[in-house]
Amino acid sequence: MFTDNKIPVVDIKNLSFRYGNQYVLEDVSMRLAPGAFLGLVGPNGSGKSTLLKSLLGLQQPQKGEIRLFGEKVEKYKGWDRIGYVSQKANSFNAGFPATVFEVVSMGLFGKKGLFRFLNRKDKQKVREAIEWVGMTPYEKRNIGELSGGQQQRVFIARALVSDPELLILDEPTVGVDAKSVQNFYTMLEGLNKEHGLTLLLVTHDVGAMTRHVTDVACLNKFLHFHGSSKEFEANQDLSAFYGHDVHLLTHEHGGHGS
Hints:
The chain is α/β, with parallel strands linked by helices. The chain has a single domain (10-250), classed as 3-Layer(aba) Sandwich (Rossmann fold). It is 31% helix and 24% strand. It is built from 10 helices and 10 strands. It has helices spanning 48-55, 100-105, 109-112, 120-132, 148-160, 178-195, 206-209, 229-234, 239-242, 247-250; strands at residues 10-19, 22-32, 37-41, 63-68, 71-72, 82-85, 166-170, 198-203, 215-220, 222-228. The strands form 2 sheets. A 6-stranded mixed beta sheet has the order 6-7-8-3-9-10, sandwiched between helices. A hairpin with a 2-residue loop joins strand 1 and strand 2 (22-32). Helix 4 crosses helix 5. The radius of gyration is 18 Å and the shape is globular. Mean pLDDT is 84; it is low at 1-5 and 245-258.
């Protein structure tokens, strides 16, 4: 959890956002410490996507502030410190003629430029990112030949190749089978523990993710809970965090985030 001698990676204070007169987020405050693995959960319409858009500087809240690595988001310039994998990543065009290596190397274009050739060091970074997500045996395979879970690993490698300090994942397991989901979360846990990567995972999948994350935040317009995964699991009335039965969320794998 957050300690006073560390600047939080994400610091949200009293954030409120509304569309017209309808509040989607109201007085939300939360911090993400360096090295944490936070699972952000909530039902459809709970404000998760609105929070992410505000966090990425794509929209301006009516109230409150967001700081990234200590800087206000509206003035923030260090976006190369943040990797992002959207929920739309797994709808990647299966017919796209690119190998796993080529897709991951695209993550360097922001630094190298679109038409620059990769040098030996760049290629090594690409191979390391592929290895981190356990996809080395598929390095030369076409992206369209992979399963949904394997494709998501590749898109995470693409985000990792530029050496971000924070990785944000928006509903990454939508459309992925249950066995692959568990392997996927185990892989994320390894990136967090072994490589020290700070992770923010947005998901519906309460049951599967809680054993892998360090912290949980429950959002449903208000922030109903924010604490360690152990504190979250120890609570016997999880529905109180949402305002309705949490079991409706635990088994919900389809659809898109709010």
